[in-house]
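Good morning N.,

You mentioned wanting to compare the apo and holo forms, so I went ahead and generated the holo version with fe (ii) ion. This is what I fed in:
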Amino acid sequence: MAKIIAGIGSSHVPAIGAALDNGKTEEPYWKRVFSGFEKSKEWMAKTKPDVAIVVYNDHASAFSVEMIPTFALGCAAEFPPADEGWGPRPVPVVKGHPALAAHIAQSVILDEFDLTIVNKMEVDHGLTVPMNLLFGQPKDAWPCPVIPLAVNVVMYPPPTGHRCYMLGKALRRAVESYPEDLKVVIFGTGGLSHQISGPRAGLINSKWDKSFLDNLSKDPKKLTRIPHLEYMREAGAEGIEMVMWLIMRGALDDKVDEVYRFYTVPASNTAVGHIILENRHKAANKDKRAHAAKSRQAAARKAAHRIASKGR
Ligand SMILES: [Fe+2]
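and this is what came out, ligand included:
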């Protein structure tokens, strides 16, 4: 059975991609950002997922104002990097997992979440920047297949945080009904607080961001009740991207282990947030093993009792 073992939240600031692509990672401004992901890369190298589901938003690269699906699942065999105005980023083509993606589409749609199935799609910094931050900069291939899930957070109305959280739960049911043993991680990307235009351009609200991260870890249901207007007011117009983190969080256990967190301000004009949350599968496995051992002992006692009774 496939299993979601962990969730990763990460900002997907385009300037981070530009810094990587132009060899600026050692500059003090950028080193502050990249050093916050060193431990995460080690965690990812140790975790070695078989598949990553990456929840992100497209920035008018694959979709335009002519057509914006609320939830679009990438079911293709591969997703080339998009040309975002300066040519495609020099990153490997993202390989998909069509079999698992088709299974997820079927399960989630029959679970009454009407996803758009996308069989051809380019992916932009929204997906590739978090990939770099967690997997480094591989030359030829990313270390695991990826299922992109694009969410509309660019044109009103985006989905509610609650809808996103419930979709995460449906994704989990989908993954866990896939028969092959696969270790799956899920990314929620975007944010944190930022506003790129208008009189409040440059807005960053660290206090609100940090409280969001605290609740994401310990009380995610509280976050599902935040209305769009509060995201706009407190986290800026583009802060609404944070609803995507709730898809990731919904796909995890109610209680999780926060294994890492990083927050820094700013990168470009955005607050950078990052968190790694693990399901408590290890503890659950331990409980299962203890239960199995107890059952074996009870069976052995019964068998011994039967033999002793026959002897009498
Ligand atoms: Fe974005």
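The chain has a mean pLDDT of 94.

Happy to go through it together on a call whenever suits you.

Best,
F.
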